[in-house]
Design goal:
The protein has 151 residues and is α/β, with parallel strands linked by helices. 23% of the residues lie in helices and 26% in strands. The chain folds into 2 domains: 1-37, no CATH class; 43-150, Hypothetical Protein Ychn, Chain: A, CATH 3.40.1260. InterPro entries: DsrEFH-like (IPR027396).
Length: 151
Amino acid sequence: MGDLKSNKRCLLSQSVVCILLPLTGAAQCNQVEFNAKRIDMADYVLVESRDPFEYTDTEYFYQVAADLSNAGNNVTFFLVQNGVLTVRKGMSNSVVAKLQTAAPSVKILADEFSLRERAIADQKLTPGVVSSDVDQLVDLLAVSGVKAIWH
């Protein structure tokens, strides 16, 4: 098999490790036992205060929410200030609709005061978005162990 320093190692799956032999391109695979550690889900509250019409990096924040959820975490996405502009029903190329498609388990809440200030009525919200208030945001942030990210 040769010196491990001259071999390239790659992990093909959780239970099989292969060593690629540099000269032949052949692979020698061995079963490997892992000490599996149970990883509990984390609770995340992501707060978005900006809109994608003015700031292009907001789409990245929506992707972070989807990635966290798809990794098995509980994610609440709370929209405040101009962040609520994205929840209007019927928007073309909606980042909220993309998030709902990519990670349907993400809870999307929109601050009712921010909605009211921008003349967005509850019946004009994208389906699945729930009007909420800052009191609920404070309650979410006060939960022991919750991880909060404000953007």
